[in-house]
Amino acid sequence: MIPQTDNKNMVFGEFIALMALMMSLMALSIDIMLPALSQIGHDLKVLHDNDNQLIISFLFLGFALGMVVYGPMSDSFGRKSAVYLGLSIAIAGCFMSLFSESYFFMLLGRFLQGLGLASARIITVALVRDLYRGDEMGKVMSLIMTIFILVPILAPTLGQGILFVADWRMIFAFILGLSMLVLIWFGIRQIETIPVAKRTPFSFTDIFQNLLLIFKNKEVMGYTIMSGLVFSAFLGYLNSTQQIFQDLYQLGAMFPIYFGALAIAVGLASLFNAKFVMIYGMQTMSKYALLTIGVVSILFFFIAFQSHGQPHLWQLMTFLAIVLFCFGILMGNLNALAMEPLGKMAGLGASLVGALSTFIAVPFGFIIGQSYNNSILPLVLGFVIFSLLSLATMFWIGAKKPIQL
Description:
The chain is mostly helical.
């Protein structure tokens, strides 16, 4: 049960909704922009089409750096203080992108947005870890992801709809308004799960010593690396999806419909995982999801190769639906597996897990995206390589019960 106070009546459903919306701010800041990337690049005089992907990559770069900060901060000063600071930085970055007249300030604003939104991502995971344990934590994360997945289903269509009546700046105005709404909702309704008496005094020495303990934990590091490797392929997909669908397959304004349809596969996977993870466990679910991605991707690589990297649209959609379904299973499970041993260090652990996995994913995802050459082969090869590397990491971890820190 979620703890209650006299003036806070946060029931389970509202907690799930708020946590899902907090996690969704980052996804929204990515997916709602996808239909506008080429227009932003044109207006801000970007020379090469692939460079428009930096609008996504810089957001993730700031996100990775931000995740290093908010976990230790929340352990020392409370979960709510970290969210207040982070969302304030994100709102400032949104203002900068909204009024930018050069690509430099656009990217700087996106970096600040990622830097700030990392707080919502980190504190959401830490709050869930504060309140739940084991496979139950995996179930709660899956429920959060089930609501969260509505964002990639609806956000590109929303972005395209805004572009029909206004320019891309109104997209940033929408993100700005929603960020302020979340900040107010969280401030009024969410209780502080780390009372003052249980907070850890802020100390660089203690942080360093705790980091060493975490780094020495095979399960935490192994599942964090797995999460980063899996996310590398997915980030490569996010970086290149607009060019694949709008340029290669000439879908134009229909792109959000196809992107949203694929996002449904991730949502269905989260529901599937929430039901079966309590029966089979997170490790088993993750292992078979990775095996499926690897086998299907290898087979589809040879199919795509026969058509010079430009298979029929229905073939590509089928492949991506299967792969993204498996990714939906992995999203909550790998995070929960990495966090499970981190009892008293949930905040610091959430920072390390999130930051390291994103630092792994950003450069590899960038390479996959920049490799786009009017062919889907780089993307498919990315899924092959990183699923197999993740499986190898899982075998290295083994199946023993994690040691609690």
